[in-house]
Amino acid sequence: MTVTVPGTVEISAAAVAKLAAQIASENPDVGGTAGLLGRTVPGGSHLGARQTSLTSLPKVSAEVDGDRVFVDLAISVRWPASVPTVTTDLRERLRSRLGAWTGLTVAEVDIAVTGLVADQPGPRVR
Predict the structure, then answer these.
(1) Angle at 18 (CA atoms; ends 117, 16), nearest 5 degrees
(2) Could you report the per-residue pLDDT of 66-89, keeping only the tens digit for each?
(3) Does pTM top 0.85 for this prediction?
(4) What residues contact 95, with CB distance under 8 A and at least 6 apart?
(5) Omega before 6 within 30 of 0, i.e. cis
(6) Which residue, 8, 55, 47, 66, is CA-closest to 29?
(7) DSSP structure class, residue 82
(8) What is the β-pairing status of strands 9-10 and 2-3?
(9) Residue 64, number of CB atoms within 10 A of its CB
(10) What percent of the chain has a predicted confidence (pLDDT) above 90?
């Protein structure tokens, strides 16, 4: 945050992105994505990228334009959760919580689901 004029506070896009990642991580059905060379790649784990994980933070970027913020997320979703339900809930939570925490209007939330993550199976019984 940078104080620009007495009585006003400017919130950086990086701070907004970190808040959005934290909000997204609070949903147990949302996690991070496999990446390759800093980019999100569907199926990237087959190319040697790190695995998708429900315990890692989603990839988030934000742009602040005056009092409006635009957020882009790349997430994985726990299988068999409903992708439309998870993304709708996430979009509503981001609009509500980011708006309340920052005082900014969340103008747009774009969500890319780049992978589905199955719960880890338990030990096999023979």
Answers:
(1) 125
(2) 999 999 999 999 999 999 999 999
(3) no
(4) 106, 109
(5) no
(6) 55
(7) -
(8) antiparallel
(9) 19
(10) 60
